[in-house]
Amino acid sequence: MGSRGxxxxxVPNAEELMQETGFSAAHLLRLHERFEFLDRDNRGHxxxxxxxxxxxxxMNPIGGRIICSFFPPGQxxxxxxxxxRILAHFxxxxxxxxxxxxQSEPANSRTGKLKFAFQLYDLDRDGKISRAELLQVLxxxxxxxxxxxxxxxxxxxxxxxxxxxxxxxxSFDEFRKxxxxxxxxxxxxxxxxx
Length: 194
Fold this sequence. Notes:
- Helices cover 51% and strands 3% of the residues.
- By secondary structure, it is mainly alpha-helical.
């Protein structure tokens, strides 16, 4: 995939990234090749425009939100280590992976995956999903398949069911509780080498 011929010697921070993300050497090599493929101008970083060139992202109704999730506010470029750390959210969960006490929770844990999903809805990044934010994402996802009245009804019901403190918004804890029975580990996993 990469025209520059990747080897593990060319992968920046390889050992550290394998330790931090749980990706194997083969996964990292494949991700580095993908990164190089997306970095058509050989700049060593990606921009939002590089992601927009990926057909699957461009065609996704929330592709813009997905792209934004790779770029924190004020950040215009993404280096390879950051690219890997974000994709680690989508690595399948390993049931028996040991963690030492000092290590933070892995990105691919249930909580890590939920935090990533939450930020796709929390458009203003204030720690709450408002009715307006939920409606904006629902409109993007459902397009013309449903009427505005149906969208309003879906948003109202979602807020009513998840909003435990009755502040007319969904906090991360409420979001997490509302998804307790959802197999988020499976739904937010990509098999990288299959």
